[in-house]
Amino acid sequence: MIMENIALIGFMGTGKTSVGIILAQRLGWSFVDTDEIITRQTGMDIPDIFKYYGENYFRQREKEAIEMVCRLRKHVIATGGGVILNSDNIKKLKENSYLICLSASPEEILERVKYDKSRPLLEVEDPLKIIKNLLKIREPYYQCADLFVDTSKKTLKKIIEEILDQIKQRGIVECRL
Length: 177
Ligand code: S3P
Description:
Elements: E1 5-10, H1 16-27, E2 30-33, H2 34-42, H3 46-53, H4 55-69, E3 75-78, H5 87-96, E4 97-103, H6 106-113, H7 127-142, E5 147-150, H8 156-169
Parallel strand pairs: 1-3, 1-4, 2-3, 4-5
Helix pairs in contact: 1-8, 2-4, 3-4, 6-7
The protein binds shikimate-3-phosphate.
């Protein structure tokens, strides 16, 4: 079944934004990132939103961003790692998007995010422990995806080829790639 959008879900640091940008280019589609919409609309970066308004406020803005991107077509949508915690978000995304879940090992996630201060949930003394805990809690929610791609120890090029192969095989997008 041909889908209007592709949405990338998965934990922080699994490559949703990097993969999304290239995947959109390869498909000749546009790229949109819900975190970026939120920062643009609020005029604040994510750490400040969490610090001054709290996580619940962020989740509300995230829900609105999801409602907005679901009206698009021919977009690769990168979502925030916690987007799946709200079942309305999943329901909305599933209406016209093919959901691809990117994953990586906790150790690799830590390697990728450790110098990046933009993820307030990981600004803790023992980020590996938090990553493992959150992964355990979120694992069942990520199962809503249509396709799962492990990005551990893979180059961006390899990940993109794997996704393109799968979506071509499954007839998800109309393409001559
Ligand atoms: C979050 C992930 C972040 C961002 C926010 C909360 C989460 O996005 O939405 O910091 O709850 O996992 P990335 O997955 O793009 O890092």
